[in-house]
Amino acid sequence: MKSALLSALRCCDCWECKLLEDLLRVNKLIVLIGLCCITTTAAALAETAGIISGTVTDERTHLPLAGVRVEAKSPSGTYRTVTDAQGRFRFLSLLPDNYSLTFSLVGYLPYSESIVVLNGSQQTVTVPLSKTIKTIAVTHARSPGSAFQRGMTIDTYTVTGAQIETVQGKAFNTNENQLLRSIPSVTIDKSGTVSIRGGFAFEAAYEFEGIDYTSPQPNLQNTLQNISNFGLLNGVGSVQLIPGAGDATRGDTGTGLVLFTAKHGTYPSYFHGDAEVQQFPFLHQLGLEWGWADPSQRLSNYAGFIGQRRAFQYGIPGTAANTLGTLGTNAATLGSTIDPNLVYYAPSFLKSNDFVDNLIYRFGHNQGQRLQFFIQDQAITQTLDYGGFAFLPYISGGTSAGKCAPYVVIGPQGPVNTAQQNFTCDNLIPLFPGQPNTFAFVSSPDRLNSPFLAYKFEYGVNLGTTSLLTARYWRTWAEQSQIMPAQGILADPYGGKRTAGQIDVTTQLGSKNLLKYGGIYEFIVPYGNRYDFTSYTAFTTPAYIIGYSITHPNQPLPLPYTYTGLLPNNNPSAQQGLQQDFFSPQFCAQLGLHSNCGYLSGYFPGGVRFPFEEDIATVSQQQYGAYLQDTIELSSRWKGEAGLRLDGYNFQIPTQAGAPASIPAVEHQRLYEPHLNVSYLPDPRDTIRFGFGHTLSAPLPSLLGADVSRAPYAAFENIPSYDNSTGKPASYCGPRVTQLCSSYADQLYWLTRDYRYGAASLEAPLVGATFTNIDLSWAHEFRDGAAMKITPFYRRGYNVIEQTAQIIGYNYQTGSPVFGNVAYSNLGIQKATGIEALYTKEVPVGVSVQLGATYISQFGNEPPGTYLQPAALALGETYRSPDLSPFQLNAALNYRSKNGWRINPIVGFNVGYPYGTGYYTAVYCNGIPVIVPNTSLAIIYSQTPGYIDPLDPGTCTKPNIAATRGIHEPGLPGGLLTTPRVDADLTVEYRPPTHGLLAQSVFGLQIQNLFNQLYNVPVYNGCYGAPVTTGLQSGNAPCTYSTAPYAPPDVSAHSSSPYLTFPNLAPLSFRFYYQVQI
Amino acid sequence: MKLPIIGSLALGATTAALVACGNGGASEPPVTSYDPAATSKLQFAVGVATLAFGPGQKVAYGLNTVETLRQKNGLSGTLYNVPMIIGPTNFNVLISTETGSEVQSAGGDTGTNHITWGTLNQSLWTGPPRGLKSSSTGAFGYGLCPCNSDSGPGNGFTPLYQAYYQPIYGNIAYVARWYGGPPAFPAAGPSVRALGWLGYSLGFNDFAVAPALGTYHLYAAVPPAYDTPQNPTPSPGPNGTPTPPPGILAAGAQLANLRGLPPFATPSFTADGHGGGTIHLSVPRGVSETMVEVRAVGGSGIGVCVQSHQTDSFYTIVTHHNGTQGLFLADDLGPLTQSGHKTPSICPRGEYQIYAAGVDYPAYESSYPQNLAQLPLIKGSGGQADVTTSNLLTGSYP
Fold first, then answer.
1. What are B144-181's pLDDT values in tens digits?
2. Nearest-by-CA chain B residue for A946
3. Dihedral of the CA atoms A817, A820, A825, A829 (nearest 10)?
């Protein structure tokens, strides 16, 4: 028997067979194989199906066998074909599932084996049929989620349904970030955002079931995030992540691509239910999914629903919101000093209903045609104002009639009120709809509604036996309604939609070549208006800016806080004192102003308020792409893949007189992207691959063409322009801030637009960033089925979009820097090198392991804690990426016992996040950009670790540092690392025996944040006292936080710390769930 | 079953170790600090100030003070402290020797023998704040000045030197500010000037109250801890007892001779028509060195020159000779243009003031930036630091 087996194996000239042969020789495996070679490549296909192809031969003569009936059968579908004269067969459009592949021919013994198909996977099998040997085939079915994928050409990671449960702890876990962070190459930056190989979030691409889920407009929830569906998982069957270049079949991938595949209906059908409850913070969740197909499997459907109601908790339970510090997203990134309001206004409650349906109908000869309809419909409502809304004022912020905020104008003893300030507060600030007066309290908390809808029609057809054509049409809507009286924003709704048509063709050329080609066209249209009631400061000088104060002594309300209130007008030519035009004649007389006061009173005898700002969407975008790619089986060991893609985009920028001439040159961009990948098989258990590719990240529409509506200024249209500082028409209108204003409305329009977007950034001449990606992988499969893969990589970004802003002052209350115009440019650099490692082991009983680690060393222009300074950009200075942890490890162990228990710990570890202002900084010194010690001679007032001697300051290149903040700030900003961080969740689940019942119950407990890690990264302590001596003792008096009402309650406890770390993350919590499977 | 147990134990141990070595990013960086009292030294000198002022060359006598509080590297010892001068019991801050009336803006010091923070922070003497808020007064590396690090937000604002209007308690119509500028002192580049830099400290602080023989004490209270209502900034008691110790640096100086230097005659000036000119002065006997101050008033004059002269410019010429002499003010000491070109010292039709100070101690040699000794010499051969200042010559450049 054994000799017969060995004889059979010798027929195969493949590495698997040789391995089995070796095993048989040492009597370690009792198996008889009638076939062997399975070569798998998971490619970055845009398709939503996989490919199996192969050749059937006579095992004795090695001649090809024609007419062999081949059947691929799974719960998702059954596919049939016959081999051609060369013995070849191919299934070009298999729904992802576990397939049983059966071969039969009269005179030969039938043969079957198992193969797992994923979206975009292409697998080749070689089958020798035997006439004589009676065998039972036992094959080693390798999971598609294994780190080892034989013959892989591109670097890709797949997380299958079982692995999703392992890395998520349980089924029906909606946390998308938790899933993605388990994948090497993904790091969760310190703002909680997913980054692929160190790229910005908006430089990655997302697809769900072949639909581009990349946000069609700036994400108002998190401007760093780029996915439309709120980061909530529902109906996801598997995830494939392709870092780096991938292949040519998908464009606009930037630093990487995430492909979510939807579940689909099966025969026999299934039903899963999930009910979850968490007491503190409150959470209720209901999950339902139902997948079915008719017995012929022509028609199938999957429907999934997850509804969630949850409250949010930041930091230590019971702690007042305004002591919890920042959430990290903005403040930690921009390096703001203490700003408790970010938590104060953060979400307090979320209500989400998420529905997914995936309908597939297959028809035609051998069911060779397929129609699919997919839809995801999300309704998400968030209630904000975590700190409570009782006694919370409107953004206008008055507290009582005739008396506005108790500061802003700075007198010798600190902030004081002025009559102008009070008048402005009472009479001029625009009122939010429904607001009775400027000193009223809001009657309901701020709210955000975030509906999202995506649907797709797809048609796939086999063209003969060698080609598959897939055509799809899809649309997505992502929008938000914002009703935020306390924050002065109203949007109802505001969003964007993507519409696309796409065709992909796959053609098998001979037995060696698999050709893919296709194209896509997308049209992206932002829509809706957004009303901003905070931008009245566009019309005021800093001295008259209105803030608001603590309004009730017993309520932990926000500190005196202005959203933009302390920012000066961005317009360098802004007219100072324009608000005096709005003053009444009586008030002008009271001020003793006669010649330049009350200009508008003649047109509005009853008085007029500042107009609000209305933001409008102006720039639509066309995106298109076309590709051609060939995958070549060069030999049994070598496989090559070469592809070329054309990606293009075209912004529909409204041209204005005076706009920069470079606009037409950049609005339409094209990029040819070569992709070259090769794999080599040195032995059966090892694969080495190398890839090179160039990719594009199209700029978001939000980065171009921002504009405000002229509608709010209509009442001023017939009023002549007037500059009360000269008595003549204002001359600061137009894109260049040089044109004569045609009317008072024109004047207000340009002041507002320049305030919001900067005088020069309206039509910033940006092109999309491009990336050169190189990676090399070695994958190895252990004999117990475990596998590992190690991938060193290098990525270089070109034309990376950078924002620069000069520090022009400081915020009196916090000491944080105030920046001038934000300018966009393509002068950015990103250079990333790193290593990714993945270890996988999947077993039905015992311990399954999913362990991913990423080391990344990335340098770019982006400094931590602030905008990039123009001098740094001029010098080409690069910083260690401020938000990335250099090393991150995620380990998920899933232990399943035979008697129904499951224990699933998940641990996330990183070595810390960079922070620190650095000892050096880049500035313009006497007109020349230089790197100098970071003192107040370099950066005016703010965030300088070195304190100069006032009497002997030195020069800006050689400052005399008399004292420091007492901490060692190495090098450039970002030189410090936070302490290592360990997050852990633990799931314990019990599945009682069914004893013949159809329903299978699951009882579970998931402990989240097992170690109660509550702290985020430190933020710069603007309250840290001024220096006392070299090395610095503790601080002293002058920090404006030090006395009420400016001191956050927690500051006194941290006053001697140069950086502060506040508890602000969700605490330890216990979630109980019950699931049922039928 | 062995494997999961071992695996779980290993994972648990690893996790525990990792958790032990980190606490979720909660760390705040350690601070290294030094006790200023241990590393910095305070020294103090007093003398008689001979003050010439007003029409008719009136002369008044006041108290001149000089202090240094320096680290070992010569830079200022602290960047925030609360100074106070306590004189002998017969020293009385009551009548201005220039006005003959009760001193102005002396607050609670009126009629006492001390000059405290309250007086030294009065805007009448400090001038308007350069930014939004005034700095309070501290004792620095070369003289008292309103330079404490408290005028901006707390996070690192260190102001640039600002001189008092002197003499403090003097006739407000004839006070002057003293800044060391080129050619005797290095000229600042455009970047530092843009931040408000006007010049170096000449080190002396004059008070137009009658000096009294005896010992004067200077205290500089350095806050030992964060200043909160529960832990206020320490300050010395008016009776001279430092409270609470040890956060107060102290130094004493003896005034043994009330005979000051002779009055300094007002200089005269002959313009050369190119931005500079010759300053004529007569240095009185007993003066070992003279610092002549030229103030080109910012924003005055005509032509493109004014664009670079938006703020005051101060020029200092030092002479160590006595008697009548002429000192040449170079033509092009003015602020550099943005493109780095020189500008006239005084713009055409620009207003200027010229005044001089003669001293009997090495005031210039002990000044920044050339002297970075921790204890520079601030007394003359008589053990005092006497000064004589001229009246102001005010004019308009041709």
1. 999 887 765 444 456 789 999 999 999 999 999 999 99
2. B156
3. -20
Question: Given an 8 Å threshold on Cβ–Cβ distance, is A1026 in contact with B148?
Answer: yes
Q: Tell me what pLDDT residue A706 has.
A: 63
Mean pLDDT on A1026-1036 = 40
Neighbour order of strands in the sheet with A121-129 = A38-42, A121-129, A50-58, A88-94
Question: How is residue B321 written in tokens?
Answer: 């000779």
> Any residues with CB less than 8 A from the CB of A541 and at least 6 apart, and which?
A568, A569, A576, A577, A579
Q: Are strands A121-129 and A50-58 parallel, antiparallel or unpaired?
A: parallel
Task: Find the Cα–Cα–Cα–Cα dihedral A171, A174, A180, A182, rounded to 10°.
Answer: -40
pLDDT number for residue A172: 94
pLDDT confidence of residue A65: 92
Residue A856 to residue A860: CA distance in whole angstroms:
13
- Whether the per-residue pLDDT at A326 is higher than 90: the answer is no
In sequence order, the β-bridge partners of residue A408 are none
* Contact assessment for residue B261 and residue B360, using Cβ atoms and an 8 Å cutoff: yes
pLDDT in tens, A690-702: 999 999 888 766 5
Tell me how far CA of residue A74 lies from CA of A77, A78, A952, in angstroms. 5, 6, 81
Q: How far, rounded to the nearest angstrom, does the alpha carbon of residue B164 sit from its chain's CA centroid? A: 7
For residues B386 and B66, what is the distance between their CA atoms, to the nearest angstrom?
Answer: 10
Question: For residue A184, which amino acid is it?
Answer: P
Q: What span, in angstroms and rounded, lies between the C-alpha atoms of A810 and A335?
A: 13
Q: Find the radius of gyration of the CA atoms of chain A.
A: 32
Selected for mutation to probe chain B from A1033, A1042, A1051 (highest B CB count within 10 Å) is A1033
Looking at the predicted structure, is the pLDDT value of residue A552 above 60?
Answer: no
Report chain B residues whose CB lies below 8 A from the CB of A981: 22, 24-25
Whole-number average pLDDT of chain B: 85
Burial class (CB in 10 A: 0-12, 13-18, 19+), B89: exposed
Q: Are B155 and A1024 within 8 A, CB to CB?
A: yes
Stretch (H or E) spanning A996: none
Contacts across the A-B interface (CB distance below 8 Å): 326
Q: What is the mean pLDDT of residues A937-957?
A: 77
Torsion-angle region of A434 (φ positive above 0: left; ψ -120 to 50: alpha; else: beta)? left
**Looking at beta carbons, which residues of chain A come within 8 Å of B78?**
963, 1027-1029
Task: Name the residue with higher pLDDT: A762 or A402.
Answer: A402
Q: Can you name the residues that pair with A515 across neighbouring β-strands?
A: A507, A630
> Side chain identity at A375, as an amino acid letter?
I
* B152:A1042 CB<8 A: no
Q: Would you say A441 and A458 are in contact if contact means Cβ atoms under 8 Å apart?
A: no
pLDDT tens, position by position, B361-391: 999 999 999 999 999 999 999 999 999 999 9
pLDDT band at residue A225 under the 50/70/90 scheme: low
Instruction: Give A614's Cβ-side CA count (13 Å radius).
Output: 14
Residues of A in contact with B374 (CB under 8 A): none
Per-position DSSP letters for A824-848, written without gaps between them: EEEEEEEEEEEEEEEEEE--SSEEE
Percent of chain A with pLDDT over 70: 75
| Cα–Cα distance measured from residue B89 to residue B91, given in angstroms and rounded to the nearest whole number | 5
Q: Report d(CA A595, CA A573) in Å as an integer.
A: 21
- Please state, in angstroms and rounded to a whole number, the distance separating the CA atoms of residues A227 and A241: 14
Q: Which residue has the higher pLDDT, A869 or A545?
A: A869
What burial class does residue A759 get, using C-beta atoms within 10 Å of its C-beta: 0-12 exposed, 13-18 middle, 19+ buried? buried
User: Between A820 and A617, whose confidence is greater?
Assistant: A617
Report whether B356 contacts B292 (CB < 8 A).
yes
> CA-to-CA distance for A36 and A15, rounded, in angstroms?
9
